[in-house]
Specification:
108 residues, mainly alpha, Cytochrome C3, 6 helices, 2 strands, 39% helix, binds heme C
Length: 108
């Protein structure tokens, strides 16, 4: 019985956990032009701050590649720039390019 319970809890833990880091680079050409690299999205860190349903499906579809994220949309208050997120005092702001993008050229 204890073993079954243990297995159940293990399975549940795996099921409930979200994905690990997610590389967001659908807009690779545009990223290159602007001189910034892909975003390595720290999913686990966000799970500690919010519930799955705070983001899925309203802000982000929970399927890689299904979200048409751009900086214009972020700045318009969608995706990363949604209320209470990186457009608010609750999180670092959108002009901190290097906190989200890898390989940001110097002086950004
Ligand atoms: C809170 C995180 C975050 C910050 C801060 C941020 N970005 Fe982004 N940005 C993203 C994400 C996520 C994408 C989508 C990447 C993709 O799917 O290719 C993106 C996409 C982009 C793109 C490609 C799409 C487009 O809109 O042309 C460019 C260029 C870009 N960012 C530039 C910047 C610059 C410059 C800054 C600083 C002024 C910045 N970003 C700050 C998260 C961020
Ligand atoms: C702060 C917002 C946020 C929270 C909270 C969050 N997610 Fe996500 N999730 C994202 C983003 C952003 C993506 C990337 C979507 C993309 O690739 O276009 C994502 C992607 C996913 C994916 C798709 C992975 C893939 O490779 O297709 C799954 C599944 C997922 N999340 C499940 C969860 C679960 C389960 C929880 C709660 C334990 C959760 N998420 C909590 C923002 C969040």
């Amino acid at each position: 019985m204890a073993v079954l319970l243990f297995l159940f809890l293990q399975a549940h833990a795996i099921y409930a956990a979200g994905p690990g880091d997610i590389r967001l680079d659908d807009k690779i050409e545009s990223l290159k032009k602007a001189g910034v690299g892909p975003v390595i999205y720290p999913h686990a860190a966000h799970e500690k701050l919010y519930k799955c349903a705070d983001c899925h499906p309203k802000i982000f579809k929970d399927k890689h590649g299904a979200n048409d994220i751009s900086m214009k949309r972020n700045m318009d208050g969608q995706f990363c720039g949604s209320p209470n997120c990186h457009n608010s005092p609750k999180a670092f702001p959108l002009y901190n390019c290097a906190r989200c993008h890898t390989n940001v050229r110097a002086a950004r």
